[in-house]
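Folding problem:
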Amino acid sequence: MAGKPDPKWFDDMYNNRALVPEHAGHLTDWANSSASVRRQESRRLDLKYGQALGETLDIFPSAKGHAPVLVFIHGGYWRGLDKAEHSFLAPAFTRAGACVVEPNYALCPGTPAQPVTIADITLQMVKALAWTWRNVALYGGDPSRITVAGHSAGGHLAAMLLACAWKAYASDLPAKLVRNALSISGLYELESIRRTPFLQGSLRLTPAQVRKVSPAWLPRPKWGVLTSVAGGNESAEFLRQNQLIQTAWGKKCVPVCEALPGLNHFSVLEALPRPGSRLNTLALDLLGLG
């Protein structure tokens, strides 16, 4: 990043919709496939994990009790998209024996009366995971086997949750609430995001916020592992971010850090539920279903 101060360079590196001209087709496919899943699959939709804006989640139960739990957090640069557009991911994992939880969160920038920051969203995801630990057994999930996965902004949030001090949030929670995490095209230092013009108006990041919510600048988690992947066809900055977290947290904490050949920022997510794909295999291994 040194020697790259031009604001346009940051837009060129981080504007994935501009980088992938066919992105609209991917998003349409996600929405259509998810609508079909929401009509046909066993599910519990829009359960409240809190009372604030966006604090709902969907659960796709496992047919078996005591199933490992996959919590998937959607992306959209903390300012867009919805859990309902990502239900297409669930069937592959429920059929493999997992219970799938997909939370929503409030979107930046919020409103003048109720502004929303990335730190606020991070705390909402902490609340969602606490709710999941306390309640997922009612839906066939094993609260002692929670894996968090996320895409893009959701990958950032997955890393933050692995590093969370759960006991500091609530004394009834186990210190190892999140067993491990999978970050797909995740963002680990947000100073670059703060400097990206097309995101500045909605995210309104400050240097202090960046220090607080950049996983790579936080102490490595005391337990658990993070699997970090990106699409091999993503921008140089997304590939740098992918490597950064392994450098920052070390190979013991981040034993898998890969760029998956031939995949862009959108098609990489579509590999997650695809049986036999490298990404699907990595996810099943984290869940103990490999």
About this structure: The mean pLDDT is 96.
